[in-house]
Design goal:
Cytochrome P450, oxidoreductase activity, acting on paired donors, with incorporation or reduction of molecular oxygen, NAD(P)H as one donor, and incorporation of one atom of oxygen, binds protoporphyrin IX containing FE, monooxygenase, two-stranded antiparallel ribbon, Cyt_P450_CS, alpha+beta, 3 helices, Cyt_P450_sf, 169 residues
Length: 169
């Protein structure tokens, strides 16, 4: 289900549950991109900002799942191949790092993605969702370390007895 995978990727790009990664340099001073980094320096890496960087993403603030579907690539305006939606999970592309990167990258990413896809797929196929107090979700973000919604999301499930029908009765 490439489109569902793209939606999940786009949500994790815009709303990474862990918006910062933490690293500490080794026991030697070094230079990175012209910056002097002292030994044992702790650095917070702003994953949230990296995944909304306008130099890497076209319309970075917008929710566009299709950006992960196309190759060659008008939506992102880059030549990179985004076709394989399984690729960009923190392994080989440092513009997209919701699960961190390298040796301390999230060891639970495969499990997390499997559970997310199965859960979201079932929730969408088996229910129609009504939002409390309107027809749009308020996406304003809170200020906690894990960037939850500022206003709790309250929805009502309407069961689809025939999940293959387009509209639930
Ligand atoms: C959507 C779900 C998840 C997200 C977005 C997520 C994200 C992350 C991130 C960003 C890190 C830090 C990586 C780094 O510093 O490079 C991390 C570390 C970690 N995650 Fe996850 N994670 C998720 C689910 C899970 C699950 C399901 C498990 C276990 C079953 C898990 C286990 C861990 C562990 C053990 C670490 C620490 C790894 C280390 O320090 O070596 N995570 N995760």
């Amino acid at each position: 289900m490439p489109y569902l995978q793209s939606c999940v990727k786009e949500v994790l790009r815009l709303h990474p549950p862990a918006p910062f990664a933490l690293r500490q340099s080794s026991d030697q001073d070094c230079k990175i991109n012209g910056y002097d980094v002292k030994a044992h320096t702790r650095t917070l890496i702003n994953v949230y900002a990296i995944m909304r960087d306008p130099q890497s993403w076209v319309n970075p603030e917008e929710y566009i799942p299709e950006r992960f579907l196309v190759s060659g690539d008008e939506i992102n305006g880059r030549d990179d191949d985004y076709e394989d939606v399984n690729k960009m999970d923190g392994g080989d592309d440092f513009r997209y790092i919701p699960f961190g990167f390298g040796r301390r990258g999230c060891p639970g990413s495969s499990l997390a993605l499997t559970v997310i896809h199965v859960t979201i797929g079932a929730l969408i196929q088996c229910f129609e969702w009504k939002i409390n107090g309107g027809d749009k979700v308020n996406m304003e973000e809170g200020s906690s370390f894990s960037v939850g919604l500022a206003k709790p999301l309250v929805c009502y499930p309407v069961a689809c007895f025939n999940p293959f029908e387009e509209v639930c009765n």
